[in-house]
Amino acid sequence: MSPTLRTIILSIGAAVAVIAIVIFATIACGLYDVGADQPDNPLLARLIAFARERAISVREGEAANAALGDPKRIADGASDYDEMCTGCHLAPGMKDNEMRPGLNPKPPALALAPARNPAEAFWIVKHGIRMTGMPAWGVTHSDEEIWNIVAFLQVLPRLSPAEYRIQVSKAAGHHEHEMGTPHGGMDMGH
Questions:
Q1: DSSP code per residue over 144-188
Q2: Helix H or strand E segment including 45
Q3: Cα–Cα nearest to 67, from 182, 144, 168
Q4: With contact defined as beta carbons under 8 Å apart, do 86 and 169 qualify?
Q5: Which burial class, exposed, middle or buried, applies to 6 when counting CB atoms under 10 A from its CB (0-12, 13-18, 19+)?
Q6: Which of 15, 130, 131, 167 could form a disulfide with 78 if both were Cys (CB 3.0 to 4.6 A apart)?
């Protein structure tokens, strides 16, 4: 190896080591504010968003697409979405609640966003996303139930508030998972 190449390699190694030490020292001293009420560093936010999208894209092939146009599947998914998702992702015509402004990152209002690729949506709902508050619903729900939610997510952006309520009412009582309260809903301590 030539002396010039050796110097370049050693210089790069030293620079990487210094950067790693600075990052470790910043974290160890508590200098990086992890409070949800603090805006993210734009570079870090872009890096995390890139990592999230790449991870989802690479893993979305794990999901075998289900028939998403079945009205019963969509209605069952509407019921689950209404019970489990509106607190963070809202429903058509729903305004921000007390919780959403304090979330960082802020979850997308799914009624206002274009529907995701079904395989991506399935993976996200099933596995959740770390450090976002998005739970891994696959821990408590079957793949079939998750596909119901995905089927509903495909039609959600096209629904008016009245159409949303109709979809939810079509499967009234569908969401009966025993999650800690007598009526089946989640006990959030209120």
A1: HHHHHHHHHHHHGGG--HHHHHHHHHHTTT-----SBSTTSSB--
A2: helix 42-59
A3: 144
A4: no
A5: exposed
A6: 167
Q: Which helix (H) or strand (E) holds 11?
A: helix 3-28
Global pTM reads: 0.75
Of the pLDDT bands very low, low, confident and very high (cuts 50, 70, 90), residue 5 is very high
| Percentage of the chain exceeding pLDDT 90 | 65
What pLDDT is stored for residue 184 in this prediction?
41
What is the DSSP track for 49-89? HHHHHHHHHHHGGGSPPP----HHHHHHHHHHHHHHTHHHH
Given a contact cutoff of 8 angstroms between Cβ atoms, the answer to whether 110 and 156 are in contact is: yes
Q: Which of 156, 85, 144 is nearest to 114 (CA)?
A: 156
Q: What is the pLDDT of residue 9?
A: 95
| 149-168 pLDDT, tens digit each | 999 999 999 999 999 999 99
Rounded to whole angstroms, the Cα distance separating 152 from 110 reads: 11
pLDDT band (50, 70, 90) for residue 98: very high
